[in-house]
Structures
1.
Amino acid sequence: MVAKFELTDDSVVVIIGTGAGGGVLANELAQRGVKVVALEAGGRYFPEDYINDEWESFGQLAWVDPRTTSGDWRVAKDFSGLPAWIVKAVGGTTIHWAGASIRFQDHEWKALSTYGPVQGASLLDWPIDAAEMAPWYELAETKLGVTRTGGREGLPGNNNYLVFEKGAKALGYKEVHTGRMAINSAEYDDRLACQQTGFCFQGCKWGAKWSAAYTDIPRGEATGNLEVRDRCHAARILHNDAGKVTGVEYFDPDGNLQFQAARVVCVAGNSFESPRILLNSASSMFPDGLANSSGQVGRNYMRHTTGSVYAVFDKPVRMWRGTTMAGIIQDEARHDPSRGFVGGYELETLSLGLPFMAAFLDPGAWGREFTTALDAYERMAGMWIVGEDMPQETNRVTLNHDVKDKFGLPVVNVHFSDHPNDIAMRNHAYRQGAAIYEAVGATRTFPTPPYPSTHNLGTNRMSENPRDGVVNRWGQTHDIPNLFVSDGSVFTTGAAENPTLTIVALAIRQADHIAGELSRGNL
Amino acid sequence: MSEVRERRGMTRRELLSRSVAAGAAFVVGSGWVAGSDAAWAMEVTHLKPETMATLIQMARDIYPHDHVPDQFYAIAVKGYDAADRAEMVEAGIAALNAAAQGRGFPSYLDTGWERDRVEILRGMENGSFFQTVRGGLVTGLYNQKEVWPLFGYEGESFSQGGYIDRGFNDINWL
Ligand SMILES: Cc1cc2nc3c(=O)[nH]c(=O)nc-3n(C[C@H](O)[C@H](O)[C@H](O)COP(=O)(O)OP(=O)(O)OC[C@H]3O[C@@H](n4cnc5c(N)ncnc54)[C@H](O)[C@@H]3O)c2cc1C
Ligand code: SF4
């Protein structure tokens, strides 16, 4: 049943990367009868392979190929070779993700118009809006089985949530609930309900959480239109004299360079690898890299304004039991400049196991201030801040020609510095987070710095005007008609919400567009 | 844990009778270091036993948990007893002892108060030896499954059916 296409078959769509963007696009194209070859750098793992152990799972799934960092973000100091925490496997980071699935607020599609110009920020309106996205969001919510949408029940709250909820209500917050989650509260779509095992970040062994690894990818393969080639690392996209792309050069599992011809190429390697591939594909015709006439490839890197607040109580919480992200406060997500910043943020519960807590609570810290916090691990509760960060042209992904990966390709350097708006927002959120826990009797709180980035956005941004960005409203590059970008790197602005539902909605919409254009003979 | 254990074939009494005190917490003999209560012992091949004892104390001073026995710190730094790391460690511990002596103590291990040892460590915390040891402990100590229960952490839960029927929402003090 599973398709096998010839390297010379130039009728196929080649997708690079099989995560939230690429994995969904592959299936949605295959369902529409389009022939697809998906190249995935990582291997294939299923729920039975996932490991309930933080570091072992990290070793199994995480992208640990070399990268470098610069800028004033603390990640560059504490985790200089690991700017992002993302997955290298079939299904991409949807194996690690927590499942929080919320739509953008309407005004967030129009950040520049809503907030006005912000000094030092390269804000822009998306060329699409809430009304246009509404039906695609609904399809995405149905695909992912998002709770509290489409009549699906919310999940029950765990201990970490119950502490968070009580504190939130004490502060007068109103929009507090167990989240809209791509985690089954009841059996759905042939997948089990959540068993509250608490290792959502390590891959859900029950399959209760949606992941492209065991939904979209096998379903796409079952159509006979999709061939997934795992352990195949895309190196370069080639083009012809007419300036159209002709296929993808990649290293196969044995390290041999292959060329897969293509009618259309879609790049979906997440926000570091996608611009890297475009930049590494520079040619005499496109000396600055593919689709880069604007000079915007790699720029405007966003990672959400994040941070965590952990708190210690005098009695046990056992926050690790149950869903990792078990609830949300949405009251601060509004745009309200009276707080001293534009845009808003969400607060979501988060738990780390002891090994990750030791690594991330206060990286580099030692001595009793640090160890007494871990001594109280059983009495700890935690939440994560996720807010809109300002796009800045200087926050960018570039090629580092001094460092090469195992294939001899230049790796990326990731440069990031906070915008003053990001800092003001984070400090506001730290204060609110601490106040929530203090309202329930916390004896100590910890404003924990951001982890290596889990939300990586914006490095091939979508723009109305080709001068301002890399892709148009369909994710089609402004410069090359048969080259598309299909992952979180197309985000014009980041909004306050976790990005994956939007990545998935955009991928379904893009599949519909590409399939239509192919059948109309326009591609 | 297999490499740090009571020495087979030697009783506590025999072990202690062949030992020399190294600080208050450790005893050393030729090719080994042990807890003063002889609850555990560890062979050392490439490092001087006193060096290993000092390294174990240093590990505890970096991440002090009073309810975590020394043997877990010993396990965490056991890997430094290797041919390609011995020179670096001997030099680092020699510098640590020199710093202790500079402050009037006989050695790092014979510096009675933790606060004095912490002062000594603060003086070298930006150096590569300290950072290597500290960084290694983050996983070396906290990623030992045997240590987790001491912090209440329950680890793997899939094989037990998750927490759906085992207290995911059992908080009773709110
Ligand atoms: C711990 C964690 C928790 C998260 N929780 C949430 C959440 O609750 N809600 C939410 O919305 N988001 C969450 N996210 C973020 C979410 O997982 C990502 O936003 C999303 O998966 C990004 O989709 P993507 O398609 O851009 O990239 P990915 O899903 O990362 O997929 C990219 C794929 O491309 C492959 N690839 C890269 N380069 C190449 C190459 N050269 N050749 C071939 N293949 C390549 C990669 O191996 C990878 O499989 C979380 C992330 C993490 C790490
Ligand atoms: S808590 Fe639920 S969603 Fe998370 S890993 Fe366990 S079963 Fe899956």
Note: Residues 108 and 161 of chain B are 48 Å apart (CA to CA).
2.
Amino acid sequence: MTTIPLRLKELSRQEDRFAYGHRMCAGCGAPIVVKQVLMATDYPIIAANATGCLEVSTCISEYTAWKIPWIHSAFENAAATISGVEAMYRSLVRQGRIDDRQVKFIAFGGDGGTYDIGFQSLSGAMERGHDMLYICYDNEAYMNTGIQRSSATPFGANTTTCPAGEVIPGKPQNRKDLTRIMAAHNIPYAAQASPGHWMDLMKKVRKAFEIKGPKFMNIIAPCNRGWRSRTDDAIMLSKLAVDTCYWPLYEIENGVTRITVKPREKKPVTEFLKGQGRFKHMFAPGHEWMLEQAQEYVDREWERLQKEAAFWAEEEKAE
Amino acid sequence: MGKIVAVTGNEAVAESLRQVNPDVCAAYPITPATDLMQRFSSFISDGKVDTEMVLVESEHSAMSACIGAAAAGGRVATATSSQGLALMWEMLFIAAGDRLPIIMPVVNRALSAPLNIHGDHSDTMGARDSGWIQLYSETAQEAYDNAIQAFRIGEHPDIRLPVMVCMDGFIVSHSIERVEYLEDSEVKNFVGEYRQVNPLLDIDHPKSYGPLILTDLYHEYKRAQHEVMTKVKNVVLEVASDFEKLSGRKYGLFETYRLEDAEIAIVILSSAAGTTKDVVDRYRDKGIKAGLLKPRMFRPFPYEDVAAALRHLKAIAVLDRADSFGGYGPLFSEICGAVMSMDTKPPMINRIYGLGGRDYMPDQAEKVFDELIGIAETGKVGAIKEYIGLRE
Amino acid sequence: MKEPLWKKLTPGSVILEPGSSAKFKTGSWRSMRPRWIEENCIQCLFCWIYCPDMSVIVEDGKRKGFNYDYCKGCGICALECPGKKGNKAIVMEKEGS
Ligand SMILES: Cc1ncc(C[n+]2csc(CCOP(=O)(O)OP(=O)(O)O)c2C)c(N)n1
Ligand code: SF4
Ligand code: SF4
């Protein structure tokens, strides 16, 4: 068990497991997610990585930013790849050929590699029950190939494959709620986190590592290139996503839903949208309906989540 | 000496996997390979092997999990066919590029469309450029023997490449044949212990697998990969020689049948070679100098050795159980490559047979030999590529 | 004869040196440069936990300078810095000015 207190002073004494010199864009949210995840624990970790920005920028030619064993094989299969690593670990430990050093297994994937093309492989690995934590760093589009829409792209967003045009003003559909879908696999732990709330994020990672079996975490990871925002706002936006309830922080542990961070005051979703060029057209005259629709979606989902959490709070009290 | 049994090709190969006892298998069902992995699964359920089985949700994930497991560090096997192999295609190149010795029996089956479950070689021929070693088997015995040797070949420290062990769907996978098994201990000693170089599970020495490599070094990595393939031949022969000492059964890069003094010959892979050998005998009885060459190692292809074996012929027919639409059959292309180095090139024809499991009958081989007799006499070739065994 | 480059490559393109990206200095990407104003620093270490490039130096639990070899000048540290009484402990300045 990781015992080091969740205080930055203490955490800073640990050795980094993710090195500088990686080539993610300045101000990218994904490396913040990775460093916080690895910092949360002192278990030995082996990670798989789906093709995408994180992978191509952290392991190029003879340069790797990873100080843990790491494998990338392809785009749609980080979950399957890590299942193989984990299966070999179990096999060799069971046969007494290596010591059980409580190694933990992580797969990192972008939203494209997780919600879309890697969805089958993820679903399969979760159902099989591998002892692994899948982490989606969700930047809400295919960034590595140049900001194409994914099923994680929110309603209205302007991407290169759903550009805001004269007739179609950005992405017509709402995002897929992958965290709930993963929870519906009845895995022991599924959670949503944000690097702006580092303590909440690390607590979740720690909790996940104390649970045997398949775990899933969906972590928002702002991308200033794709979101058409500033290089300094990744943390600000990931906090606003939480404060507007656009990206609620919650966990579903053994079926029980808990909201882990409740915003003191729920801000209008426009607070999150307005700083991002991908939503700019939604603020143009005549497009008020888009902002309304975005707000309605957030309200509805937040309402649902609160009801769910309240139900479980009641149940737990009754017990 | 082990025991003599009457088993199907799938049973024999499943038995070889039990004897080798891989650390991890990841598999997904597909006819006609399903039965192989089902049998292996029952070995797991009965506690007869130490293997950790990963029952994945697709062949793409099967190969991905095999790649993860092999990189982690241990012995890995899987099996598939046809659409399954096609779905794995992307990952085949990665297994080879990462130099991971995964052993994969492939029960050859036609590719869709139209959907068909019977044997032809379009699946593995489609994967011939993936960087895998390919061994083809005529019988259940050969499939069993090749599977065992494949571990030694693929895991050899100079090689470290994945290997496909091919056998014909249904014709071999589901037909009962006489097979001689080795003793468990013999197989165990023969394959020995395997140690992966640079295992991911060596957590004290973290490695990164699968970097992005652009124009600066990709070309060099591929050159290095080619170099490994040039070493495979000697290893295959060395392993075959050890295997012969153990089993008394002789293997090479290819098998020749009455070829030494032949004037005309058929080059053909896998089970159809059996039928063709019978026809060779019949023609020999008639005083016609017919012969046969059956490649065993298709990747890497032993061009020089094949050329040396075919050099004296007056006419050659290459029979392909796979097509390249708009091109010659894949085996024919390789034989052309071999013949290219000869000063006088024997005339050659390409005949496509047996697609989607269409029976290959002796009369088809007879017609080909009759045609070769004419070509040998006149030196004249009509159509280079044609289909045989078509229904009226 | 010199051994060709392709013969010297690690089989399977495996990278054996963890954290070797440190040999690739990304500091040259910077157009803005963070400057630390020590007297305004409350040692909250937010800049350290949020820096995407591990370029805020903390030694023995104490905030020190920046690692300009790798800092890309994104400005996250400056934006997130609470400072003392509204005075930021990190400011962004034009590189080279
Ligand atoms: C099978 C396959 N299809 C397409 C691609 C091209 N591709 C590489 S990365 C990528 C997008 C990755 O998007 P995401 O998973 O969201 O990660 P991000 O780059 O945004 O971090 C795509 C489409 C690929 N590598 N493999
Ligand atoms: S494109 Fe976006 S996700 Fe990719 S490295 Fe740049 S900021 Fe990060
Ligand atoms: S400017 Fe960006 S990269 Fe540089 S130290 Fe601050 S947060 Fe890190």
Note: The beta strands of chain C are 32-36, 56-59, 62-66, 90-94.
